[in-house]
Amino acid sequence: MERLVLGQDVRVTDKKGKHRKMTHRDLLEILLKVPKTKEGKYRGFVSLQLPGKSLGPLRFFGVRDDDPNDIVPHEHRRDLRGYYVFCAWLDHDDSRAINTKDMLVEENGVKYVRHNLIDFGATLGSSTSRPNSPRAGGEYLFSWGPALKEIVSLGLWVPHWALAKYPNYPSIGKIEADVFDPEHWYPEYPNPAFENRLPDDEFWAAKQVMAFTDDQIRAIVKTGQLSDPDAEQYLVDCLIRRRDKIGKAFFAEVLPLDRFSVRDGELVFEDLAKKHGMGATAPLKVSWSRFDNETEKKTPLSDATSFAIPKEAFNHQDTAYYAADVSPDGDTRRMITVYVRAQGQGQPQVVGIDRSW
């Protein structure tokens, strides 16, 4: 207690609603309500003050009228639609507008609005100050469908989330990996960006989640300094298994090829399903076309059916574009179109990718 020093400008609102300077007595009253470890230590957390001027929360739909840089409706932004996958992995069910903040900042004399995600207290099965509800992540705070099923069945219908089992670890909230379904995870409230997500948004986020190795997850959990080693291992196992479920679910919806480039005259890529031990992708079929960048018209090249860049691409003095349609043999639904720009004798470059599903 004597090691804690209050800042000169720290203020508190007391029980009478009076806003005044905080005293050590106020601090003591707070600590008396907080449990201590066996060594007499308190656990706490602090939040950094965001730089700039607060402009209020970020909306998950529309754009800011006062921000000329904000031109893409938020419900159609990939980072916000893909945010669903990260929230599902960490069970961040309180991922709503109130837990965001827009700040007006200035860099090198230029002012702009910076969007921030804040307040991750309700993650990993926690409800900030207590374990989360078993329902969290299983359905919205209120949904007509589940409610009617329970009423009609007189309570005999059991939602899938109620089948989850949770070990008794006081230092960990209610998080598990057996019942977790990444395609049917729900935040507390409907989120327009989440509801507008597409398979390529999910793939974009899933490949970043899958990039966390087992050792990295162990190291991250270790920073939490959990007192119980069994609880620590349980949380590690949960995050690894939830990560793998995310990869399996969302890699299957698209052709999981990534990091396209041109090397030694061939189109090369990385098969993420194979990389993460989810099985190699089926044999691939590729067909090339000339691509008119102005009209978006494709002219098929009948003799170009391998990953080698078409020979004519190396004979153009002017800029020319080519499109490679890559798909599993017999499955044109999950196709990737890779756009390549060629100019003179230089190395062709990948300049765009379209995915279909």
How many individual β-strands? 12
Ends distance: 60 Å
Which sheet architecture does the biggest sheet show? Answer: 5 strands, antiparallel
Number of helices: 8
Shape: globular
CATH C-level of the largest domain: Mainly Alpha
Element order: H for helix, E for strand: EEHEHEEHHHHHEEHEEEEE
The side-by-side strand order for the widest beta sheet comes to 9-8-10-11-12
- The low-pLDDT segments are none
CATH architecture of the largest domain: Orthogonal Bundle
Describe what this molecule looks like in 3D.
There is one protein chain. The protein has 357 residues and is α+β, with helices and mostly antiparallel strands. It folds into three domains: 1-35, no CATH class; 51-253, Phosphatidylinositol 3-kinase Catalytic Subunit, Chain A, Domain 5 (Orthogonal Bundle); 259-355, Immunoglobulin-like, CATH 2.60.40. It has helices at 24-31, 78-90, 144-152, 192-195, 199-210, 214-222, 229-251, 272-275; strands at 11-13, 19-21, 53-54, 100-107, 110-117, 257-263, 266-271, 284-291, 298-301, 319-328, 336-343, 349-355. The protein has a five-stranded antiparallel β-sheet, with no helix packed on it. It is globular and about 80 Å long.
Short note summarizing the structure:
The chain has 357 residues and is an alpha+beta fold.
List the helices and strands and how they pair.
Layout: E1 11-13, E2 19-21, H1 24-31, E3 53-54, H2 78-90, E4 100-107, E5 110-117, H3 144-152, H4 192-195, H5 199-210, H6 214-222, H7 229-251, E6 257-263, E7 266-271, H8 272-275, E8 284-291, E9 298-301, E10 319-328, E11 336-343, E12 349-355
Antiparallel strand pairs: 1-2, 3-4, 4-5, 6-7, 8-9, 8-10, 10-11, 11-12
